[in-house]
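#dry-run=false #mode=assembly
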Amino acid sequence: MNYTYRIARQIMIEQKYQAIKNFGYFLKKQKKVRSLQHMILTNYWVGSISFAFISIVLVLARLMDGYSLLAMANIGLVIFIYGFLVSLYNSLFLFQGISRNNLLEPIWQLPSEKNRNIYLVCFMIFYGSSVAFMTGPDLVIFYLLSGNSASLLFGFAWTAIVILAGFCLGTILSMISLIQQRRRGRLEAALSRGVKFGGIALSLLLFEVVIYVPETIPTFIPGLSGIWRYAVFLLNIPYSVFLAGGSFASVAEDVVFTALFLLGFMYVSLKLGQKSMTLLEKYPEKRQNSYSGQKSRTTSTGIAMLSKDLKLIFRDPQNVSLIVIPVIVTLPLILSLFNPVAAKTATPEGIFVLLLSLAAFSSSFYSIMVLNSESTGFSVIKMLPVTKSDFVAWKSISILVIFVFIVVPSVSIAVLVTGFSIVYIPIISVALIGGFLEASWFNGWRLVGKMGRETDNINMESFGGNLGLLKVFAVTLVLLLAPVLVLDLLQSYSILSLNGYEEPILLFALIYFALLVIPLYVKRTFGRRDREPV
Amino acid sequence: MQPAVKAEGVSKAYGSTIALSSVWLEIQSGTIHGIIGPNGSGKTTLMRIIASLTERDGGSVTVHGVDPSLNPIEIKKTIGYVPENPALYQSMTATEYLNFVGSIRGIGSFQHERLTAAFIKSLELEKFVDEPIGSLSFGSKQKVSIIAALLHDPKVIILDEALKGVDPRSSRVIRDLLKALSRNGKTVLFSTHVIETVDTLCDQLSILYRGRIVDTGTAAELIERNSKGGSTLEDVFLNTTSDSPVGNIGNDLAGILGSGR
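#status=ok
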């Protein structure tokens, strides 16, 4: 077996082992290494099949409005962009997992240059390849409907490009954050921080443009001249994969030149990746900016927990990147309100439902991210007299603080653009905050419950990797949408009659807070688990 | 008088691996009790069970009359635990971390400031308190971990290889501190591989081997009972915790290495 592959596989096993080594069910297993391999394989396949399922659902939903080349190209573009984001997310998480747990420490001692590409091999085999399951069904359905075999060829070539692009951007962001952690000068740190956030903003802009103006892409890209066409390879997808605006020969030419362009991009990011491995090797322990002049003082338990969580989140650039992802995913919905036709037909209740997606994405991502930020420090909490209930409550409040800074401006923009009274800003915000808090609190309990009493390390694999994220997202959707659907049903059968725009939203807020407060009261009053330590 | 720590027939297995097999132990208040044993003998498991961080499979444990598995939060208030590998938040500075621990433990600001200042000065950590913990040396991290475990003035202090990586001066300070604390009625449970440390520090010793306590007593008592193989505590340890004598194993290995070239 190939040396690099073996080490890459070992890194995955190690990451999984660190996550679950003290879980009761794992400790009871007889063949632990085999069981770890089995879990990694199962997670990979279930995650990949879930991606395929999501892709099929998205395409079929679009096809319900009827088949057209442009419609297929647009939904294809969305799927490819989501594939890119999943790649970026995985790339960031993998780098974080490797650097935090010093997973490469044992192989530094081995005299081999092959170690340099382990990060890429690990990513491609265990994470990147699953993205093909996301784009694959879309391409196959398109081929079956259009009979265009060239789209299959170009589609899979483009899938590889999208995976590598996510990997490259993730590597570059991780690399910049690593350099930032090593540097002490304020100017250097500020510069690298600026470059990093610039990169995030650029990818955000790219995504927004693509989603907001998909119709213009097929005509816009061929209109670009020379190298620029290949530089915006992601935007090029509808044009070149789905042939929405070019001949086979011109598309083939595009693929070749884009691949060449990407090879250059890849070369730079691989070199950076190798450089980052060297940095990790030289400084296995993080060196960050010092924080001089701090005073020894104590505060209340709540403030201490909140302040600790926010520090853990904001001092880790990967976590900051993860905070941005829900915003990237949902901002197009807010931007769609800038369309005069959409603004005219919008209602405050509609705005609330639209922004519920922001609460769903944020709650899913942040619930995992805030636990993941504990990392090996989780054993600190276990040594302190902190109950599971307090732990979950303060984690939920920490991410709520971040969510408030995102949701209030989002609601304000949506309300102001659509011309409704500013009274709706607090009403919609409070309802969304209620939903977010309820879902996050439930997610927190569910995820903490998954950890064994002896868990002392948390990483992405603690919750089942991509599959775990999908499960959390599904649960969050049910929690947030169930009241909306029930209320809708009650209204449509005239069982419940609500007046005005604000009454339904206020009722949603009431339901969310009730769903939070009632179980909380029951747990505090009757539950033994509530008084259990973390 | 009720013992500070009492373990009766404690057992623990990880799958098919037996970590502890009917361990009996009684530690009186105001004593320093050392646990010595070879790697994998169950020292850490025993300490984690007492500290309520690991569930036992069988037997009973009490710390000042409280069962760790029934009331873990109360135990965490009573105990100060220093793990073998310092578990700390890497991105926090030492000051921030100690502030966090002090806050959770409900220590008043004035008392906290006084305590941390004294500890930081005594353990020569002044230069590093504003640095992220991740950038500190292993020994400095261990010192932060020790301070955090002592801040709330616990009745029982459990140190699992706590002096590993700590410089000789600070190690001496900590050992003197533990002796003083035990004189003030605190109970210390201490594990280490360094025989000299337990010999000079501990009032009582237990030798743990393959999940069982094979002997308990003062260093002098252990030497007296097991004097057939030698007259030092190290000899007693080697004789009671190994099936084969050390003999010339080191020299033999060197020979094997040499013959391979």
